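Protein 1 of 2
SEQ + STRUCT:
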Amino acid sequence: MNKSIRAKVASKYLACALLIAGASACDKKGFSYDNIVADDGTEYLITDSVTLNMSTVYLDSIPTSALGVALCGTNNDPVFGKISATSYWQVKAFSGTTIPDLAVYDSMVLMLHPARGVYGDTLLKQHVEVYRVTEEIKKPSTNTYLYSNYSFATESTPLGSREMITRPYWDTVYKVRLSDALGKEFFTLSKNKSQTITDQTRFLEYFRGLALKPGANSQIITPYPVGDSLNLRMYYHTDGSQINQTYADFAVYNPASSTSVQFNHIDFTRPPGSPLTNLSATNKSLPSTSSGNKVFVQPLTHLIARIDMPYLRTFTQYHDYTKIMRATLTVRPERLTYVYPYTLPANLALCEINSANVITDTLTSSLTGAVQYGNLVTDLVYNVNTAYTYDITNYCIAEINSSDATSRGLALVPPRSTGLTHFTRAILGDVQHPTNRVEVKIYYLRYK
């Protein structure tokens, strides 16, 4: 039956407008039909006029630990506002080779390896400062993660700082020179094999950790992979000169990815007059009609997009038998909002979200069964054909059969591995947007 149906659809190029204009479930107005009827009385129809409500949703808490990326810097985004990132972490105890008795301390530096995905113009200055943390970095007993609004006390004076132009395509490492007083202290303890620096528990009591904060002149936010960044390196030499200099490393303390307490703290201030200023922990939804016919996605500043089709549950009430064969969703970023230095998320996962704006599940394809990430196509010439596309067949069928308790909306959310490690962002048009409109198409059968 399905193959026959598809053949008929393909041969007839069938089109029909089904307007779902706001009727309640018991009021069967708001639909218009342009029927094409097969010999057996079956109608093959398509509608692209389903009522869509879009909104920007504010998420309460953003987990930023156990991601393997440290974020640091400040960027003034004209749409999302002034955003700053600070990274906190614990340091691994000394476990290197024995330091010779005649060794002499030289210096201590923090090694930073910049990654691609800088937030802002890389021609602008990066200014970082390194601080000693003075309280234990730990998760609350009931939490699995540390969140972006958490912070821990530090000393008031930085151990070291550096200003530079970040060139992630060219430079592999930046070294931030740290306090010699701290370096010599580490050196003496390491040389004497003191348990204060060799035993992890004692070391964390002595040295709580480090924070990498943006300095006053920072203009961009840079990601640093934790695997090879945030490494304290203590240089020393042994022969009366520095020709044969060697070093000992103090890496990030990361006993297991699930227990890592390295995390990123995020601050943001929305631009004056922006509709985003209306969003907060107490006002969690902003309709697209109140924000220029668009919605905003940037999880690190608590924003995701929501789509609702409020009258979908009435879809089958207008004939004895109606069957959805396929349904697609296409969302389009607003033109000129993803030109350098700002970039779109490479992946936007399609999820189900309940009435309390809690994401309940990811939505899989009816054809492959795989989680959907939008298959982004980017139009950098005209900026009008850039789009994410999704198969929402299973979602539409489920919604038609849902109750008030089981009904769900759709959410567009970058995956945790990328959406919470970089400041990519998306500005998506709604159905009334002048150039980049969201679109739903539903292909269905109706038996007379």
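Protein 2 of 2
SEQ + STRUCT:
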Amino acid sequence: MAPFGLRTRLVLAFLLVAAVSAGTTATLTYREARSAVLASAQDTAVASFREQVQTLAPELPIDPVLLREYLFVIASKSKPHPWVVFAEYGSLRVSSGTNPASTVITPDLRRMTLARSRGSFQRVVSDGVPYLTVGVPVLVRTGPGSSMPSGLVLFAVMRMTDEEANVDALVTAARDGALPGLAVALIPALIAARGVLRPVRQLRRAARSMGSGRLDTRIPVRGSDELADLARTFNESAGQLERSVDELQQAEARARRFASDVSHELRTPLAGMLAVTEVLDEDADGLDPDTARAVRLISAETGKLAVLVEDLMEISRFDARAAELNTDEVDVGETVRKTLDHRRWGERVRTDLPDGIRARLDPRRFDVVVANLVGNALRHGSEPVTVRLSVQGGLLVVEVADSGPGIRPEVLPYIFERFYKADAARTRSTGSGLGLAITQENVRLHGGTIRAANGPDGGAVLTVEIPLHGPHDSQEATA
């Protein structure tokens, strides 16, 4: 599961876009404003310093005292902020400040100043303080319109703390403006998320409603965007599904009705056939061998048909939700013994039936459950067959195990299906093919479950679990 819901992710995405846009705008604005602030102060200082230097016409050789006076004059006319002016002439170092040399002036600036007649400038930071350093060579006129370097170079060093403060103020303003901007952007983000999520929520509710069986559920379609297309597609799919399910239900109802009608119609002639075959069975010993074999075959097949018809009618009652559960409190061990004795399986089946286990069951349907499981184990497994009875966590547990080869893994998921045959070549069987399906329906009617598996030492194991006090603690229930 995602750590955040779709609404949260939409809002976060919207705010992220707003934050990136605000950050990009603020960054570009900051860069332009910073360049403008620094360039303005820089251009003013460079132009002013060059103008002051051009008025200086030193006499060679340089007089340090007179040069210092010139530096004071130039420093007094500094703008936009006070300068400290430094002069370098060979090994001579003079300044308008307290120190004759500056640690802020870099070798790169000296090299660029000597290489250009108009000098150069550089912004440096020393001990966290920003400075503008300007270097201009002093020229000596050699004739009309011509001049040459005198060897004297003047440098101006100006603090730019005011400009830096202005830039910091821009950063603070951009930051302080971004937070309210994000808060304002939250409102359209919530509105947009709500507009996107409304049809999504409707789709979720509609899907849940359809999942609960309401196939007539539809979504109102608004607009013509992708979400509206999704709603229309959902409604079309729901309509097609509803029609398909209706057709399947009608076909299933017709099939159930057909099976039920056929079973009812067959009961009457089958009853007569069974009566006749019983008489024929009694007189078969007096007939010739071929006729006797034919009589016994007819009698056996008529009995199988009667079992199949009865099982089909039972399944029809389950399908029609007409199967009733008439419960009573019984001794489960004694009930299982009666089932085995009634079918004369006592010598072929081992039992582990503790005394005193009582449960609320439908005796007739529980007899069918045990009889079908044991009969199936005897027919398709190997003896001995074992029936175990126990109580686990408020559940009655009945376990029927045989000593055969077990159930193939690919067959296990299907053994409770109607008419399923694990061996496709086994087209004839002593059972109807509905025994385990009827067993499962009877167990469900009791509110229990049944499962099939293979034992650790081989052999199939079928386990039934039924609540001791019956389904919903009632004495009578209808499926």
